Each structure stands twice: as C-alpha cells, then as structure tokens.
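Aim 2, interim progress. The first record below pairs a target sequence with its structure tokens.
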Amino acid sequence: MSVPISEIIDIDVQVTQPQAIVSDFSTGLIIGTSDVLTAQNRVKVYTRENYATQMVSDGFATTNGEFKAAQAYFSQNPSPGKVCIGVKMSAETEAQAVTACRTFNADWYGFAFAETVDDSKITAVALAIQSFENPSFMFYQTQDAKVLQASTTNVMATLQSAGYKYCAGFYSAADYFSCAVLGVFCGLNSTDAGSAYTMAFKKVIGYDPVEITSVQLDALKGYHGNAYVDFAKRYSFIYPGLVASGNHIDEVYFIDLARSLIQENVIAGLIARKKIPQTESGLNDIITFISAACDTIANIGFIGSGIWTGEQVLDLSAGDAVSGGYLIQAGSMDTQSASDRAQRVTPPIYVALKATGAIEHVVIRVFVNK
C-alpha cells in the first residue's frame, strides 16, 4: 500500500473554451408587415432547412411578402444558414421597426424590407442605423429613374451626400430583389479560411439583370449606387458593389468583422483567466489575444503582408513592411498614470491591419508585331 502523490502535488486540469459574444454576420433580417408577428414576439429565426414548413406552421401564408422574401434570400448560392423575420407594426415608421427589431434580437447584421418602402423612408432608416451600437447594414432598392441620370435629386444622391456607410442601394423594380441581395451577402459572409470576397461580380439567382445603358450605369455609379447588370449579353452580375459613402460593401463588412473578432478574443481571454496582472507580462497576454484574432483575419484573406502606406502609427511609418498583414504595438506600463492604474486600464494598444484589397478592374496593353 502507498500514499498517492496528490498528497504533495495536487494538479487540477481544466480545459477552457473561449466564449463568443459576436452577432451573426451570416444571418440577415427581413422586415415585413404581416400580422403573424407581434410587438411582443418581434423577431423569429428560421433555418434554410425548416423555413418553408415552419413559417407556414407559424401562420405565414406562402403568398405573404415575408415568405416570398425568404425564398429569394435562401435561393442564393452559397445560401445562408439562417434568417430572422421581423415585423413593422402599423403604427410604426420603418426606422422605428428596425430599431425595435435590433433591440429584440441582436443576432443579425444585414437587413432588408420585404415590402416596397418609399425613398424618403429609406433615408430616415439610413440615418437611424448610423447610431446603432451593433452595426446594422441595410440593402434597399429603388425604381426611381432619376438614379440613372446625372445631377438629379434622388435617394442615392441624398445618402451619398450624407456619407452613410451602412446602406447599399440597388436600382431595381423586381419584387424582393433587395432580400435576394441580402441572401447573397449573408451567404458569402464566413470566417472560413480563404473566404474573403468582393460583392462585385456576384450572381443573384432567380432574377434577370436590369436593362440600362453604359451612360446610365455611369450615372448610377456616380451616386455610389448598384445594379444587377448584363455585360456584353453574356455575363450578369452585381456591379459595382458600393455603399453610399463610396466604400465597398465587402470592405465595410470585413472591417466590422475584424473589430468583432478582436473584441471577442480579448473578452474571451479576460473571462478564461482568473487574473491578468497589470504588468508588461499581462499586457503581452492581451496582445496575444489580439494576435489570435488577427491571425484569423489573415486566414480569411482580408489582410496580408505588404507595405504600409498609411499614417504614422507609433514606430510604424509609411514604407515599412507589415509581415503577416498586421502589427500590434502598445505603450509601456511604466508610463501609465496613477489614474489609469487605479482604473486597471491598459496603455493604448495600436493594431495596424494591412488589407489585401481586391482587383476589380483590369488594364491590358496588347502589342502585335508582324
């Protein structure tokens, strides 16, 4: 008989799993006006596999706008896994409805309306979502021919002038087209390796391209608007893929994703540890959490090695190489103020990300010699 060694050395092994706090970037919200949902039951979630039967079971008719919009949403390839269906009550404005849906359920990112919404109301929604704590990305459509004419007053011009980055407008008269584009967007949003994408050149399944001329397309692009366009009578795809501010749709998404992943990893690290000391070692722990998020962003393909061309960030100057697509720098614990130490705040941490960008226009010079 012997005495177990645990009498002297007692080892307790624990396996921790980081906790996620992120909204679902691959899930969209479709807002309708049917009386199936109520203010108390504002948003319901359906999967690609069960929406057709479950929505009917919940009281939606197959002729309801929400059902048809969900069909358009899930018909895209790759198809999203889930959709949220929300309701606008009769006494509400569209902006109030989006706000109420966001308060009720935070597990969605992009949204669109199942019913036709006046351009003036689209402007009000675009203004409202700019101040949301959780980013919310609107896809909308308009059939106002003024967006195809230069120097006119229209909804796209209004949103462009305001510089809103969370709304992408499409010229289309087709029913539920904005919901289909939302499905394209959510289907593409992924954290899988190599999943970085551009919104331009993507097909919208179930829809025909709009018939517009090159001059009209130039006018539409001038307002940072988009359309599903036929090129050379052979190719149909989304173009150019911009938000009202002029940024690319995918760029806005990936920046939000990067912010979320960094936040997610840091909070998971803080939760997993009993304590992170307020020392250089503890600061390095926080930087390690951030590095893990940046590695994921690099694995997706949004960032990669390159030359920094931005403004000075601590010791990072224009012309410096950024290996791996990111550089993390921080101030020293020794220079912290007494107030910051009392509040248990880290010195500022600076994360520089080098985006890989995307090629969407090609210039080719061909020389022939006989």
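The second target in this work package is listed in the same format:
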Amino acid sequence: MPPWIDRVRAVPPYVWALAALLVAGYGLTLLVFYPGVMTYDAKFVYEDIAKGTLGDWQSPVMTVLWGLIDPVARGPGSMFLLIATSYWLGFGLLAFTVARVSVPLAVLLPVLALLPPAFVFVGVIWRDVLFAVVWLLAAALAFAAADRGLKLRIPLQALALGLCAFGVLLRPNALIAAPILAAFIVWPLRFSWKRTALLFIPAAAALFGLVQVVYYGALGATRQHPLHSIMVFDLGGISHFTKQNQFPVTFSEPETKLLLNGCYKPTMWDLYWRLEPCEFVMNKVEKQEKLFGTPALTNAWVRAVTRHPIAYLQHRSAFMANFLFGSNLTMWTADIEDPAKPLFPGRASFAALMSVQDALNPTPLFRMGAWLAVCLAGCAFGWRKRDTPAGAFAIGVCGSAAVYVLTFYAVGVASDFRYGYWAVLAGIAGAVVAGLGPRPRPA
C-alpha cells in the first residue's frame, strides 16, 4: 500500500469536514456572484486601466493591481476572484488554527462567513470589500504563526504586515486603525497597551509617508483632492445649522435659501456634487470659481469649523448617527450598464440571496452600530485574555475595526454600510476567537 494512503487515513475527520465546508462556501460564492458585481466606483477604476491614468480619488494601487491580474478574467472577474479567494482563505486559515483548540468553534467560522452581512458583499467590487478581506487575511496569518518557530513565524508576520500596509494604500483613512492591527501582527502572543501606544504614532506616521511615496512618487498619481469632498460636506452642514453660507462663493438668493434649508441631509456629500436640485453648489465651487482643490476652500473650512464648532459637531453627529443606525445602502443590485435591467437574470441563487438580504435589511444585522457594538464587546472579552494569542487577536481585529468605524465621524462623506465592512468581518472573527481557551504547543 502506498505510504500516502496511510498519511491520508491519519488525517483527523474534522480536517476533512472543515475543508469540505470551506470548499462548499467558496463554490457557493462562485455560483452566486461570478463574474462579480461591477459598481460605479469599480467601473471608474477599471476605466483608468484602459486609459493608463492614475488618480487618488479611488486608490491608484487598486488600479495597478487590477491591471496586473486582469488577464486572469477580463472585467470584474479577476478582482472578484481575488476578493472571494482572500475571503475564504482568511476564514479557512483562521478555522484550521482555531481547530487546534476547539473544533466546534472552528466549524462555526465558515458557517458564520455565510452570514448575510458578510457574505452579500463578497461578490461586489468595492475597494472597501477588498480592504476588509485583506486585513482579515493579515490577521489570520499572524494568528496562525503566533506560537510557531521563527523560521515560519517571521515570514508570515512580514507578509501580514505587508497586507496591513496594503490595506492602508487601499483606504488611507485606515492609517489611524492600522497601528492596532500591526501591533497584534508584531506581538501576536499577547497584547500590551504600552507597546501598542509606543508603536501607534511612529506606525501611523510611517503609513502616511508610505501613502505619499507610493501614490505620488512611485505611481505618479494625479491629485484629485478627495479631502475636499469632506470640506464641501462640512461646509454644507455648517451652513445648514448656522443658517449662514459658509462657502467662499456667493450664491443667488434662491440658491442660498435652498442651501440653508433644503439641501442638507446627513447621508452623503453627493447632494452638493451631482444630485438635483443642489448640484449648483459644486457647479459654482468647482466649475465656475475653480476653488475645489485650492487653499481657498481649505481656508473656508478652517474658518467655518473654528467659528462654529457647535454647528460642526451637530453636522458630524447627525452624519454619524445615520451611519451607525440609519437604513443605508447595502448590497449593490443594479446593472450599471442598464439600471432598469436586473443583475444576473435567471440566476436563482442570486435572486434568493437578494430576497434574504431584503428581508434582513431592516434588522440590526445591517446596522453598522450593531457591528461596532460587537467589536467593542470583542475587545472587552479579549482584554480578559490579553496575555494569550486569542485575546491579542480579538483586541487587534476588533480594536482596529472599532477605531476604523469611529474615524468616519470626522472623515465620512457617505453612510453606505460597506464603509464599515471591516467591522463585520472583525466582529465575526474576533467573537469566535475570543471564546478560545489556551492553545496547545505545536508538536
């Protein structure tokens, strides 16, 4: 009898069960979503590949990456396969690591990976989804390598740190949350708040520098001033709450009345950019006065915030309340080439998933505030086990996710559920791992 047969027979049954669950989950993902759901944001990125242009409104790193892998499956297919594979690889690696301590918890992971708030986004091409699955994989690599020998642990930690940095290049506003995840990757055996505090500022500064070097040095991306979208949104909000125009331009009397009383909603800055009847704001600021991306808009923002801090906080609090507790956009279901046409017509699996999502949409499962609470609870439970890899993992992923969601208080310009998707994955993974007992030493 060949030796490999004995080795196969020696494999514990739970390994085959886990492998079967993961393969089934990956297969279901392909069945439901392939070749992936293209969104408008994804279309803009993909069009930049053909044009050979790079801008910083979307991540230029995502544009370059997509261009490299595009031959695998033209259009959304290659990016979808990357996202789906990273998603199941992250959960799979985590499940096999958890199985060393608890088989039931290990089996629970791929089951929870099918939970609608997580699963419905796996097939949608958004950089927020790619960012979240990349960080999940980074955390899983560090957790798997936590108590391994240096020859294995150091390369895996290096790869995990690279993925953590890559996540920031996808979503630069993650640089405040990244040091918490990075601290876990560097010290995966136990969490120390002192070491994390010492690492925080140098790591954030290094990641900020990395974005500048990669975006504008190595890739030569065009500056499209995405930060000014925040300023436009804030100026609109402060104008609404003070009942005074805070923009460095003069509007007509009817436009001013509309700006102060009819335009503002704490949902998205697009109201001032491209949506009627308030697109006159950006038409005036950008096209007529050409102030978008100039110091004049920055100075107006600084002046408005410093003179009217209460109005600024009212606006930002209203936005955050909507982001955390409002009924916001979740799964993308429109065909961007023909919005009147349903996505994947005749595909029963996709239609069934849409029905499940529609039924659950009004529930806390699709409220970002609920997932922020899960992540905070994960940190609390992890703190009790902070001297173990399980506790360090829970604090690393849940802590970074909580901080990431909270950063939207200052920088959010839209309240789609997808912006906090990392909190969903971190909440699921952190909650399961936080329930682990001590890990046995590797043989």
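The mean pLDDT is 94. This observation will shape the mutagenesis plan for the next reporting period.
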